[in-house]
Amino acid sequence: MTPVMITTMVLCFALSVSVAVSIGLASIAGIHMSNANMLISVKEMFAAINKFPLAAIPFFILAGNLMETGGISRRLVEFAKSIVGGVQGGLPMTCVLTCMIFAAVSGSSVATTFAIGAILIPALIKHGYPTSFAAALQATSAELGVIIPPSIPMILYGVSAEVSIGELFIAGFGPGILISLSLMLFVWVFCKWKGWGKNDGEGRMSFGRALLQAGWALLMPVIILGGIYGGIFTPTEASAVAVFYALVVGMLIYREIKIKDLYAIFRKSALSSAVIMFIIANAGLFAFLITRAGVPDAIGHWLQEVLKSPAMFLLGVNAALFIIGMFIETSAAIIVLAPILAPVAQHFGIDPVHFGLIMVVNLALGMITPPFGVNLFAACTVARISLDRIVTQLLPFVGVILLCLMVITYVPGISLGLRDLVYAR
């Protein structure tokens, strides 16, 4: 059964069939080969999405779209520019810092790409940066959308591996800040070397004025994250609060969202949510079938025999996840692989929360690596250029993220330090 499923899935990928449909067809082929009742597919697909924490996904997507339309994104850009925009290369640094702040609410890298990229990619081009560099920078910076909490992939990992989502969220701050600072340092040095961005400070607001203008926008992550860690509401409930806050600020305070805009916002959010939920449903069925076939146990035993130490296990897993992330969408990869790899990681004495951060950061790289990097497609859409034009500009950014990934992997304190402080053990 398993060889048929894998062959079917790989064949569908080769024929450019969408990830969700490929996984679903592979699962149906597996059911047919095992002579099981086809009703299993309906039952397991429903069970995969019938989980309360998953309700956070459509709400965070909707909150991100409301922020984009409601002027919150633009004000966050001006605030970030007031902090770092005065130095050479300040505009690319503004891109990274804005994505970091926006990520503290959106939970989605694609939403971050469109919301921030629509403002900053034209601004970067206007200031003389190559279009390919602007698109590559935006795609990479938006990856922070799934690393800085709240994060949709973290929710999926928590549900799949039965790990506390609250602990995953608090553990995400260390890696997110490390990657943000590394990217800002890199673009600052790179722009100095290239001679770009000498006039980035033009049109920059004073810090006080930008802070006053962005006050309501900056209060949003404080309320969401403060509510989660203050025990006021769960991460799932926080997603609904984010929607309510973004709607009130966008319609009543900034007054940039009109009643007529709501249909387009809801439609866009519903379509994005449906795509993710369809992937989750099919991946849940696939995970059920391979678990029933004993594949996770077999892989676990094989890894324990081949990779004798935790360090070697983590190196092997990182290499495998990097390749897998290039071809399989992050959400689907987490749902399928987390139940397989998390128990093996625990066998090696690796904290499941730390391992979850490794998986999320690694698979998030797939969002900025060809051929199926969703952030790349989003950034290219905004910049109106073809994918092949940004690949060379992308390589240094991938190198920076990989270096950060190795540090996150082998220095657990970056992920677990704040978690252990908040969740005293």
From TrEMBL:
<keyword id="KW-0812">Transmembrane</keyword>
<comment type="similarity">
    <text>Belongs to the TRAP transporter large permease family.</text>
</comment>
<dbReference type="InterPro" id="IPR010656">
    <property type="entry name" value="DctM"/>
</dbReference>
<dbReference type="GO" id="GO:0022857">
    <property type="term" value="F:transmembrane transporter activity"/>
</dbReference>
<feature type="transmembrane region" description="Helical">
    <location>
        <begin position="91"/>
        <end position="121"/>
    </location>
</feature>
<dbReference type="InterPro" id="IPR004681">
    <property type="entry name" value="TRAP_DctM"/>
</dbReference>
<keyword id="KW-0472">Membrane</keyword>
<feature type="transmembrane region" description="Helical">
    <location>
        <begin position="168"/>
        <end position="190"/>
    </location>
</feature>
<feature type="transmembrane region" description="Helical">
    <location>
        <begin position="6"/>
        <end position="31"/>
    </location>
</feature>
<feature type="transmembrane region" description="Helical">
    <location>
        <begin position="269"/>
        <end position="291"/>
    </location>
</feature>
<protein>
    <recommendedName>
        <fullName>TRAP transporter large permease protein</fullName>
    </recommendedName>
</protein>
<keyword id="KW-0997">Cell inner membrane</keyword>
<keyword id="KW-1133">Transmembrane helix</keyword>
<feature type="domain" description="TRAP C4-dicarboxylate transport system permease DctM subunit">
    <location>
        <begin position="7"/>
        <end position="414"/>
    </location>
</feature>
<dbReference type="GO" id="GO:0005886">
    <property type="term" value="C:plasma membrane"/>
</dbReference>
<feature type="transmembrane region" description="Helical">
    <location>
        <begin position="211"/>
        <end position="232"/>
    </location>
</feature>
<dbReference type="Pfam" id="PF06808">
    <property type="entry name" value="DctM"/>
</dbReference>
<comment type="function">
    <text>Part of the tripartite ATP-independent periplasmic (TRAP) transport system.</text>
</comment>
<feature type="transmembrane region" description="Helical">
    <location>
        <begin position="353"/>
        <end position="374"/>
    </location>
</feature>
<feature type="transmembrane region" description="Helical">
    <location>
        <begin position="311"/>
        <end position="341"/>
    </location>
</feature>
<feature type="transmembrane region" description="Helical">
    <location>
        <begin position="238"/>
        <end position="257"/>
    </location>
</feature>
<keyword id="KW-1003">Cell membrane</keyword>
<feature type="transmembrane region" description="Helical">
    <location>
        <begin position="52"/>
        <end position="71"/>
    </location>
</feature>
<feature type="transmembrane region" description="Helical">
    <location>
        <begin position="394"/>
        <end position="418"/>
    </location>
</feature>
<comment type="subunit">
    <text>The complex comprises the extracytoplasmic solute receptor protein and the two transmembrane proteins.</text>
</comment>
<keyword id="KW-0813">Transport</keyword>
